[in-house]
Amino acid sequence: MTELLFRRDAYLTEFDATIIERRTIKDHPAVLLDRTAFYATSGGQPYDTGTLGEAHILDVIEDGADVIHVLDRPLERNSVHGRIDWARRFDHMQQHSGQHVLSAAFETIGAATISFHLGEETCTIDLDASDMTDEQLEIIEQRTNQAIFDNHLVHISECSLQEAASHHLRKLPEVEGLVRIVDIENFDATACCGTHVRSTGEIGCIHIRGLTKRKGSTRIEFLCGWRAVRDYTERDRLLQAQANHLSVGIHDLGESIVRLEEASSTAHKNEQRLRQQLLDMQLADIAASASALNGFQLICQPLPDQDTNGMRYAAQQLLQEPGRIVLLGVTEPSTQVVFASSADKAPHMGNLLKEVLAAFGGRGGGKPNMAQGGGFEADQLDRVLTTAKAQIVTEISQGR
């Protein structure tokens, strides 16, 4: 059994130990020590990093009562000096202790924690509640940060399972042997083997970033300590940059964005109206470009000043006349073509489009009288249209 030094002192950053066994884990050397301050991944908390002698820690794994240290190089001597990456350790202490405070606060509104995950960038807890609101999150965030400002002491102790029942834990664990209790004075008590701060003030702050509703549960994303500070700093920098760009104060940014959205919407509507007016004036010339082919009128051309909406509108207008086959294309906002027909016994437009676009790496489909597709490069538009036109000419000339 490896002696777990971090259970007694999470602030211990250096220690001496003896190698009692050597292994190989996924082609990397690994050792078991008689004692360690390195935390192994468990309970939603990742492992500690640092060094053992000259070797860097790649992973720390629980193996029953032992702890396996996976290294980037072998160790020659049996006596080793370990050094914890304190920045990572303290970050994990802030996040995990913050999770205890957060879970305790959610208990006050009847939402129990199902699971916890401490990620590289953010943390999450899953709650057994599916009707969480933004207003409740705001209340919980205020409540948890008040607990941090109140600087409750955090006590770590071990006792039997029977004794643990008297601590009024949030949830009694299903374990054998001693129970390790993390008691946040006058606020929360729960069983946990993770690393924690000495008082809630060291958590710094808690920031709830949002929620994701799931079937029967809710996932809460949050940050604590330096992670929260960095997130606030980055958000403030982005907001300030946007406010400066619009020449407004940060608190006026929301109103300015709404005005910009309204102006953009109006401009888009005006643009669509003008495009249609232009197209209405061009339709006669487009229709006049038709070539006669065995009783059909074949129109084939790109529309450089139009988008996909204008392309469809043009096709619909041109099909008002019977006996027409229309091949149109645009490059805005993406490269698209429409093949359409108002003629009886014309080639199947959907099949034609699939066959032609496949040769250019595009895709699409549709009905016998109209099909639309894209997915090819803009500089290939003319070739796509001329290829389709040539195939139609061949089919009609051969009477297919």
Keywords for this structure?
400 residues; alpha+beta; six-stranded antiparallel β-barrel; six-stranded mixed sheet
Q: Could you describe the 3D structure shown?
A:
The chain has 400 residues and is of the alpha+beta class. Helices cover 34% and strands 30% of the residues. It has helices spanning 86-107, 134-149, 161-164, 225-246, 253-288, 308-318, 349-358, 381-397; strands at residues 3-4, 14-25, 28-33, 35-36, 50-52, 55-63, 66-71, 79-84, 113-118, 123-127, 154-159, 179-184, 188-191, 206-214, 217-224, 291-293, 296-302, 324-330, 336-341, 363-366, 370-374. The protein has a six-stranded antiparallel beta barrel with strand order 2-3-7-6-5-8. A six-stranded mixed sheet has the order 16-17-18-19-21-20, sandwiched between helices. A four-stranded antiparallel sheet has the order 9-10-15-14.
